[in-house]
Automatic annotation (TrEMBL):
It holds the Pfam family DndB. Keywords: Plasmid. It comes from Rhodococcus antarcticus. This is DNA sulfur modification protein DndB. It comes from the Bacteria.
Amino acid sequence: MAEKIKRPTFGRIARPGIGYHQGSRQMVTTVLSPVQFVNAIGEREEWDPLSGTGTNRREDKQHRRGIADYLAANADYVLNSILVYLSPDEAEFVADEPGAPVSLGTLYIDADAKMVVGDGGHRSSAYGDVIDAHRPLADEVFARMTANGQPVIVVLDDNQARRVQDFTDLQNNAKPLNQSVAQSMDRRELVNRMLLEAVIKAGDVPVFDNGNRVEFLTDSPGKLSAKIASYKTLRYASGTLLVGTGYRSTKAWAEAVDLLVSRDEEAAAEKVIAFWQGYSDLPPVAQALSVDRGVAILREDTWLTSANVMYALAAAVHNVTTGDAAITTPEAFAALGSFDFTRTATGLHGTLVDPPLTAGGNPKARTGRDAWESAAEVFTNVIVQSATTT
């Protein structure tokens, strides 16, 4: 069999890279500016199993827009590497140390070759959106796109079946952060900074115990956990206390909460602290905090550790303490102190709870916004009625 003749490197684009193998295939990690990268890639290829082409899933326009907004708004953004493919006929890696498992070297690419994006289609499209929007302005954002780098993993492989399998393997091996971890790590959002530093770690709220009773690593504490709730739950309840229930999208809710906190962070923190102090003073909660395994018993016997109940309480307290209402947060929780939150009670039937189907059966919790907003109306009525009779 005749030896394959190498194509001349003259006239090809040369890029420095680090060459290595994963299995039988030559891979090269290199870095391009976002502008260079967008110019070097071809059209997005969606997976078509009938023709066996493409590797990308259906485009999520909201996800693409979110990445573009992030890139444009944050000078210190970070994106991980994007996986692309070139045919071995279109590119060649020449190692500085031939035969070494990992070597610096030069990646030579045909000038007219277009990289095929295997994993990172939304990031690639978002880069294109930002560059197209800011190139005519030649502004600070476009300057970043020309000066910054984007790591790219180039796989020299033209086997479509292997490309598709790579995409599947990458998705199966990826584990996204749960919301409690991701939100507690995100200090760009003022609500997270305020909640973590001025509320949870401040030491004034018994139910938090300086953060020891907050579950940061999962979104749902276990049945026997001593944690009162996940950070995700506490964050959403705290934000709903501040802005109410008028925002239907997560993004609009987060923007409204951050705007309110930015106007007066101290006042916002005081209101959130007062709410969770009131929650801590509810008789079943106070009792649970005072004994071993108390929170596990509270979770077993009542609805009070339910995320939906916390959201409903926050919405109700927002309702009665906002505007011209003269009801304070301590007064609201004093009124709620007589409400029966046990799982056998009927006060939440038809809102957060479906009654038992048979005598002696167990009630079933409902989920969703409609359920906890209905429960918030029940709590609001309890508070208002108490205020009018005292």
